[in-house]
Amino acid sequence: MKNWFLVPALLVAFTTTHAADLPPQGMSMAKVQQNYGVPVSKLKAVGHPPITRWVYSDYTVVFEYKHVVQSVRMVKEDAPVVNNAAIPNDATPAANEATLNVEVQQ
């Protein structure tokens, strides 16, 4: 029974430690740049309220006005190779599925 309490505690500890190196919610743009450095790129504000994104090498910080709303770590994985011959062209998606057609030009 004691082991069941340990598993959620470890998950919370891992999540907290993993997210601790990203800018926290509510931090100002000035503090983010001071603490985390200059981003690789700064995307212009879009919409109302203005949403701005700063892109770093391995994460993105999203701001609303001048404060962090979300920090998102980018996961770099090898894209799976899909054999197009295995997917019939006339296959129709189920009611809870979506399709995405992508053309790759080489």
Radius of gyration of CA atoms, rounded to a whole number: 20 Å
**What structural category do the secondary elements indicate?**
alpha+beta
Count of β-strands = 4
Helix content: 10-25%
Oligomeric nature of the chains: single chain
Low-confidence stretches: 1-17
| Largest sheet entry | 4 strands, antiparallel
Strand content: 15-25%
Shape call: elongated
Strand order of the largest sheet: 1-2-3-4
**Straight-line distance between termini:** 57 Å
Short description:
The chain is α+β, with helices and mostly antiparallel strands and 106 residues long. It is built from 2 helices and 4 strands; from the N terminus they run ααββββ. 25% of the residues lie in helices and 23% in strands.
Structure report:
The protein has helices at residues 2-19, 29-36, and strands at residues 41-46, 51-55, 59-64, 67-73. The chain has a 4-stranded antiparallel sheet with strand order 1-2-3-4, with no helix packed on it. A hairpin with a 2-residue loop joins β3 and β4. The chain starts with a helix and ends in a 33-residue tail after the last strand. The model is unreliable at 1-17 (pLDDT under 50). The chain is an alpha+beta fold. It has a domain at 22-73. It is elongated, with a radius of gyration of 20 Å.
Secondary-structure blueprint:
Blueprint: H1 2-19, H2 29-36, E1 41-46, E2 51-55, E3 59-64, E4 67-73
Antiparallel strand pairs: 1-2, 2-3, 3-4
